Structures are given as C-alpha cells and as structure tokens.
C-alpha cells in the first residue's frame, strides 16, 4: 500500500505545487433554480468573516497559536510522545474554546525511530556528509558500513552495472530534479533497486530543487521480496560531488552509521473538534483538515501544522462570531500522514458504513500556508459549477481551479471514490526548499498570510455547510485495503 501511496502523493504534489489545473468558470454552468442568487446573498457574511479574521479581533491569532504550538512540542514524529502530547493539548484547547464533540479516534500506526546516525567520506579525503535516514529504513550494524561507492544519476544508468560490480557497495543515486512527482521514486524505490544487485546501502540526493547543505528525509518503500538495506538522504551538494568524482574514476569510500529501528506498531489518534450544524448534525458534514504529525527535523510548521491551524482556527473563529451553519463543520487533524496516510486510512475504515450520508465535502491544507491565491476544487461537473459560483464571493482571490482527480493526500481516500475535495492554493514555489528538513520552522510562516488563509478556509467552509443543498457527489463503495 505504501508504494502506491508514494506514487500517488508524488503525482499529487506535482499538481499542487507545479501545475495549473483547469480554471473554473461558473458562467458556463446551469445551476439549480435560485441557487446562484442564494449564493450571492452570502457576500455580506463572507466579507464579515474576512474583516474579523484579517483586520479585526482575530488578526494574528492563527500565527500566534501556531508559534506557541511548534515552540512547545517541536517535531511530532509518528509514534513519539511529542505527537501524543500535542494531540492531548489540541483536545484540551478545543474544549476550552467551546468547540463541539471534541474527541480523538484511535489508529494503529507505524513506529520508526531514527536513533544516532552519521555518514563520512573517508577516501580519497575526509569529509562529513550531512544526512538523514529515510523513514522506515533499517539501521546498520553497530560498527556501521564502510564500503566503496558507486554513483549514478538514474535507475536506467544503474541497470548497466552487474551484480558483481554492485555487491557490497554503497550506491548513491543522484537524480536530476524534475519536480517532486517525477523524482520522488528515487526516495521510495532506490533501496530495493540497489539491494537486488547486492548493495550494502543506498544514499540518495535529497528531494529538493535547491539546497544550502541541508538533507531532506521522507518515507521509503521496501519491496517485500528483497533484502532490506539502510537508506539515507544526503545534501544536493554532496550528492553532486560524489557523482562528479565517480565519473572521473575516483575511488571513494564512505563510512555510514545508522541506529534506525522499526518497532512494533503503536496506537496514535486522529483529533476531532466540531462546529455543530443547527439542522444536520451528523449528516452531510463538511470536513476541514491538516495532519498533526511531522518528521523529526525542524518543527513541522509548514508541513503540516500550518494546515492544522487554519482548519482549527477557522472553526474556532466561526463559533466565536456566532456563525452556526446548517451542516456541521468538522475539523480533523490526521495522525501518521508522513508514514503512509495511516491515520486517514483508519478513519475511512471506521466511518465507512454510512459515509455517503455522513460526509459532504473534504477540505485539506497540506502544501504550505504561504500567501493564499485561491482554492483547488475536485468533484463532478455539478460540484464544479457550484464551487465556481462560491469562488466569486472571495474578493481578492482569482486562482480557483477544478479537477476530477484529487487535490489532497489524506482526503484523497475519499476524493478517488467521488467525494468533493478542496485544497488551499498558495504561493508555494519554494515549498520543496524546506520540505522534510531542518528548515521547516516558524520562520517560513507569515501572520498576514495565515490570517488570509484562515479567512478563506472559514468563509468557503461556512458557505458550503450552510447552503440549502449538498454539493453533488458520485460515490463508489468503500473497499478495505
């Protein structure tokens, strides 16, 4: 399942960060009688939401709450006490804010620990190689691995090596950056590709287009039929250095030490708080979401505490403004996204029996909370038409797109089966400079950008939740994975 998720997520990130989707135009649509006029009547409410959050009493509060959260809990690796403490805190705070039906729902998740790790080039000269073990990688023996290096740019180039040439070597994969969707296969597959020919370990160029000597981690996927070998990411600069030297014919030796361990699965929790609808409480729910877990480097401010907090504060501020829609708006902070959507998978299974009645639309922010420019919508053509009309209410935003595919990672489970989805469009051109690295910190987050993101999230969710009709959907049945 993880291999398929990584392939999907890579393609998704390529869409969200690099590719413009089809622009929505409601003028080409035939809406149900009176719906266009009904939607237009929400303009004063939308304007009021923006005023309160962007320039009123809630201005700066999303950023301040995010700052206090990331400073208090730091990185929140799946399976860690830090993540579970952060979940406990979110529950306590949402109760204090008066949100409805605050609770958690358990999920069995992976439990990987990094441990101490280092890599060093020892021949032809000594050089420290900053590195990060890949999530779910096995460790080395206590003495580490000291081996000669093979460096290649692609899987195709590696095919030219025989097993005898590869046996016992450390293979370094240095793919040219072609966008996350096209390049992430090297993070997920390199260990098993190299192990098939007897490699002792793999190092990969970090999945980033730009670097200042910072490695980027992420999850790998082992082929169950192939011996598991240690895998780590090194910096772009060091990967390019090793590739150049190898192509010159230089003999290189690297000493790699990793104490990484895969422990028994453990229990984590998805975290839920609601603004309960005044008419429909447990049906046609509008979900707003982000993922609570992060990698164990940086503080996970961008990926994805920012997404959590615009979802959380959207609901909190709507309640404080006295705006209670027809349908419930449910904030969900997913656990274990980074290790393969484990929290969302479990939630989907737990809610599968009556899901077509329970859910209306799924929102997710997981591609940064930089300066917002609009929204990405997914769904059928009827949903597209309603989304496009709602988008007209959002003054100052003109980047609204539509797809019949997916616009989220955790919510992709539902989108692929016909539920409508929404994600935040933002100026995230540099997202992968910081992704899964020590650079993912509060220094990336801007108070004004977070205010506008929260307001856009809150206003759109409120209108969808309060409309006289549900957003149309064509849902296929849930099938256990």
Automatic annotation (TrEMBL):
UniProtKB keywords = Carboxypeptidase, Endoplasmic reticulum, Glycoprotein, Golgi apparatus, Hydrolase, Lysosome, Metal-binding, Metalloprotease, Protease, Secreted, Signal, Zinc, Zymogen
The record's section on InterPro entries has: CPQ, PA_domain, Peptidase_M28
Signal peptide span per the entry? none
Biological-process GO terms, alphabetical: peptide catabolic process; proteolysis
* Protein name (record): Carboxypeptidase Q
Q: Which organism does this sequence originate in?
A: Anopheles arabiensis
Q: How does it assemble?
A: Homodimer. The monomeric form is inactive while the homodimer is active.
Where the record annotates domain PA, the positions are 158-240
Q: Which family does it belong to?
A: Belongs to the peptidase M28 family.
Q: Where in the cell is it found?
A: Endoplasmic reticulum; Golgi apparatus; Lysosome; Secreted
């Amino acid at each position: 399942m993880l291999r398929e998720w990584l392939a999907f997520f890579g393609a998704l990130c390529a869409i969200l960060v690099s590719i413009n989707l089809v622009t929505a135009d409601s003028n080409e649509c035939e809406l149900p009688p009176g719906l266009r006029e009904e939607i237009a009547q929400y303009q004063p409410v939308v304007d009021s939401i923006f005023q309160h959050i962007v320039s009123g009493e809630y201005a700066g509060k999303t950023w301040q709450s995010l700052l206090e959260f990331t400073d208090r809990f730091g990185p929140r690796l799946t399976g860690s006490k830090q993540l579970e403490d952060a979940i406990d805190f979110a529950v306590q705070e949402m109760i204090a804010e008066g949100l409805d039906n605050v609770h958690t729902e358990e999920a069995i998740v992976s439990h990987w620990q990094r441990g101490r790790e280092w890599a060093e080039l020892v021949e032809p000269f000594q050089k420290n190689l900053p590195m990060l073990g890949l999530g779910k990688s096995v460790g080395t023996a206590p003495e580490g691995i000291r081996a000669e290096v093979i460096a290649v740019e692609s899987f195709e180039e590696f095919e030219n090596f025989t097993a005898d040439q590869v046996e016992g070597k450390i293979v370094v994969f240095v793919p040219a950056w072609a966008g996350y969707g096209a390049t992430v296969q090297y993070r997920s597959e390199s260990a098993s590709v190299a192990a098939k020919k007897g490699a002792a370990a793999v190092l990969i160029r970090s999945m980033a287009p730009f670097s200042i000597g910072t490695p980027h981690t992420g999850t790998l996927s082992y082929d169950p039929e192939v011996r598991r070998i240690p895998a780590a990411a090194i910096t772009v600069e060091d990967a390019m250095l090793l590739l150049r030297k190898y192509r010159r014919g230089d003999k290189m030796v690297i000493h790699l030490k990793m104490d990484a361990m895969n422990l028994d699965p453990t229990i984590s929790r998805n975290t839920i708080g609601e603004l309960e609808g005044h008419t429909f409480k447990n049906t046609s729910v509008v979900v707003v979401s982000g993922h609570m877990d992060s990698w164990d480097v940086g503080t996970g401010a961008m990926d994805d505490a920012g997404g959590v907090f615009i979802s959380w504060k959207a609901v909190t501020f709507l309640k404080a403004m006295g705006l209670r829609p027809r349908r419930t708006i449910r904030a969900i902070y997913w656990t274990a996204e980074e290790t393969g959507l484990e929290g969302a998978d479990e939630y989907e299974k737990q809610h599968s029996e009556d899901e077509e009645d329970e859910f209306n639309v799924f929102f997710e922010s997981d591609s940064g909370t930089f300066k917002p420019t609009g929204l990405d919508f997914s769904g059928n053509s009827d949903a597209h038409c309603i989304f496009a009309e709602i988008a007209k209410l959002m003054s100052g935003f003109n980047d609204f797109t539509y797809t019949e595919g997916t616009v989220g990672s955790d919510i992709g489970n539902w989108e692929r089966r016909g539920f409508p989805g929404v994600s935040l469009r933002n100026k995230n051109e540099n997202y992968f400079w910081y992704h899964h690295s020590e650079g993912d910190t509060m220094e990336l987050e801007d108070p004004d950008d977070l205010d506008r993101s929260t307001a856009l999230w809150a206003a759109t969710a409120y209108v969808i939740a309060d409309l006289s009709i549900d957003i149309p959907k064509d849902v296929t049945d849930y099938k256990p994975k």
